[in-house]
Amino acid sequence: MVRQFGKQNTLISLICGLILVLALLVAIDARHPHFYMNGEQTLQAEQGQPFEDPGVYAVLSGRIFGDSDRRLPVETSGTVDTSIAGDYVLSYRTHFFFRDYVCRRTVEVRDRTAPVIVLFQRENYQVNWLDGYDEEGYRAEDNIDGDLTAQVRSEETADGIVYTVSDRAGNSTAVLRRPNYTVARPEIYLTGGSELYVKADFNFGDPGYLAVDRLGNDMTAYVLCDGKVIPYRTGTYELGYSITNAVGQTVRAVRTVTVEPQQIPGTIEPEEKTIYLTFDDGPGPDTERLLDVLDKYDVKATFFVTASQPRYFPMIARAFEAGHKIGVHTYSHDYNRIYESEEAFFEDFLRMQDVILRQTGSYTDILRFPGGSSNTVSSFSPGIMTRLTDEVRSLGYQYFDWNVLSGDAGETTHTSEVVQNVIEGIEGLPEGKAAVVLQHDSKRFSIDAVEKIIQWGLENGYTFRSLDRTSPPAHLAVVN
Ligand code: ZN
């Protein structure tokens, strides 16, 4: 009895255990419908073309037992209208165990087809680019937008004529026509490149250019140049080189030229009690006597020379050989001429440099403006002194004014007053400031004062020096 009861009990336990295991397996397996898509989840469809849904299928699937062979019924909803561009959604639905299961896909209907351009051709038509190309005609068609001929744009390039058109969806087409050229569109080549950097100078020489078409025709003679470089004014200039044909098509190359300043050394303050004697407007009949006086005391001075009395030019050579400094003053000393323009000023300046070169064997690197940089005699050319003072320094020259006036330019004609003016002027300078004295060796009474000035200076511990580019320039304020 006990045994039988025990047997029965074991059987029930076994069945219960089996059911439990089965239930556990079903729970772990978690069977549910699973969708398989044919094709990508997002599909691309071409506007205006038929679209066929590749569809999906669904099977029951679980973790343990995997997919079943039997397919579940699937219902599709949603439409795709390929005549209108847009994003369409297709939904796929199936049913299992009182529940709906859904998956979706997007179909992107777009116009991705570019228009087509057809070029017409005339028989035996030969083209000279200089005369211009006579359009032979074309047609443009788009599968969605229809006739786009009116929207075609054509452009001459080095390779030929490029026709382009786009449809409303942004698909574009480019077609190249190579007409039967005898003379083709040229290319302009700039010798030295399209960017030049030069130092300020009196002249700018264009390194040149060349125009050739792809058939090898030399068309350089047709190039027109525009733009201008002011070689002594720092800055960036644009030069254009172009050929324009009979129908107004232009081939153009551009060169930028940057004029940079020359290096100019900085000012070095001389030792205290320094006097720079400077003499303008010579050489003249009295210059020789002045040189004798300077020699006698072994004093060095500076001569800003002119060409007003050419027979005394050899005095420039003598002064240079004696160790004095020669600077440009002016060739003509004609204010109305030299201050008419910068070109006129530099023409006069270079003429005087040539005189100096012949007398000394070299050009000078200093100058004094006629009337000084603060002159008002140039006011008929507004702004010219501002420009010239910049430009001469860009060219590498230092210009000098003065801080001690002798008065020999008109205030006095007496030697004793010249001596007095210079001594008082020097003594009136701030402590330690070097004196740059203005005299004219074209004036005898002024030259007669020099010996006394030197004697006074030497007795009072002064040193006389000639100017160079590092000397204090004693610049006055430009007032133009
Ligand atoms: Zn002068």
If you had to describe this structure to a student in words, what would you say it looks like?
This protein has 480 residues and is α/β, with parallel strands linked by helices. It has four domains: 26-110, Immunoglobulins (Immunoglobulin-like, Sandwich); 116-182, Immunoglobulin-like; 187-260, Immunoglobulins (Immunoglobulin-like); 274-464, Glycoside hydrolase/deacetylase (TIM Barrel). It contains nine helices and 29 strands. It has helices at residues 2-29, 287-296, 314-321, 335-338, 342-360, 384-394, 415-427, 444-447, 450-459; strands at residues 32-37, 42-46, 56-61, 71-72, 75-77, 86-96, 99-110, 116-119, 126-128, 138-142, 146-147, 153-156, 161-166, 172-177, 180-183, 186-190, 195-199, 209-213, 224-226, 235-244, 250-260, 274-280, 302-306, 325-330, 366-367, 398-399, 404-405, 435-440, 463-464. The strands form nine sheets. Strands 22, 23, 24, 27, 28 and 29 form a six-stranded parallel β-sheet that branches. A four-stranded mixed β-sheet has the order 2-7-6-5, with no helix packed on it. A four-stranded mixed β-sheet has the order 17-21-20-19, with no helix packed on it. β20 (235-244) and β21 (250-260) form a beta hairpin. It is elongated. The relative contact order is 0.08. The mean pLDDT is 95. The site of zinc ion has 5 residues, from loops.
Q: Can you count the helices?
A: 9
Helix and strand composition category? alpha/beta
Overall pLDDT: 95
Helix content: 10-25%
How would you sum up this structure in a few lines?
This protein is an alpha/beta fold and 480 residues long. The chain has 9 helices and 29 strands.
